[in-house]
Amino acid sequence: MSSANQIKAKEARRLRRKRHLRQTVHGSAERPRMTVFRSHKNIYCQVIDDRRGVTLAAASTQESSLQEQVQDRGGNCKAASAVGKAIAEKVKVLGISRVQFDRNGYQFHGRVKALVEAARAAGLQV
User: What CATH number does residue 86 fall under?
Assistant: First the structure.
């Protein structure tokens, strides 16, 4: 199997897990869904109210406010922690203290885990 086919197969498995998870994870105004997306170089996080279909807050390693903390590398645990802290601060300004976490088919390990732990440390109930 070629490298490109292995990558496609891995992504297909993640999307299958994502579909399965989304059957039980739903966001509301009181407890919105916090979802994470990992790319090779960056990590992104959104807080979504699924009932209205609205993104309430978003943070990523590509934001100019986080660039000085990340310093050239957005694909590591330190950068993910910065994003977790930033999303927690943005959500607390909106008056939300609890979110439901959607790992988006990724393993709760590494960068995903670092993001959630940083959000918890910043006072967000995940």
Answer: 3.30.420.100
**Mean pLDDT of all residues belonging to the chain:** 90
**pLDDT tens digits for range 42-71:** 999 999 999 999 999 999 999 988 887 777
SS3 64: helix
Contact 86, 50 (CB under 8 A): no
Domain that holds residue 117: 3-121
Burial class (CB in 10 A: 0-12, 13-18, 19+), 104: buried
Nearest of 32, 22, 20 to residue 99 by alpha carbon: 32
List Cβ neighbours of 55 (8 Å cut-off, separation of 6 or more). Answer: 46, 47, 48
Q: Please give the Cα distance from 35 to 44 (Å, whole number).
A: 8
